[in-house]
Amino acid sequence: MALMFVWMIVSIAGGVLQGSVSIATTVLTADLTDADVIINVTSTTGFTDTGFVTILDERIGYASKTATTFRGNFAQPLVRGASDTEATEHTAGELVRTIESSMMNQSLGYNLAVLSDASGVIAFVTIPFAFISLLTSFFVLPLSFLGTDLEILTYIWGILSIGIIVSLGIALVGGRRV
What we know:
Keywords: Membrane, Transmembrane, Transmembrane helix. This protein is of the alpha+beta class.
């Protein structure tokens, strides 16, 4: 699992450095309603000429961009709620990201993509919290799909895993079991 995590970070970082992964973040400068056909932002630097942006959980397809807007056109209008996401209203100041940037933030658990983007938005990177979250995720089975009755198995697995780690730690420092 740890090797997979390292592979994911190296792959994403390598793609960003080579320019094959578009990592960009900007901010809405005006409210965005369900009927709007233009997305006003501070800058479109780093975004592709056509593609998709992510605002919160909504994906929006656009046909063209200017220095400060994403637009649709007659042949390809602005597509709200793309990829089975829900088209909702957004307020000025919300982050607008590329899909890759949004996926990086969700998978790593902190705003690495916001920190490294080209538009100058800086975010506080919560590495200690992400590290703790990552460590605890190794000891939690994803059993929530079984329903609330069997979700107790997740907690039992977590307690057993912590017991194993404590026992290994004591053994490594030379302690004896009593």
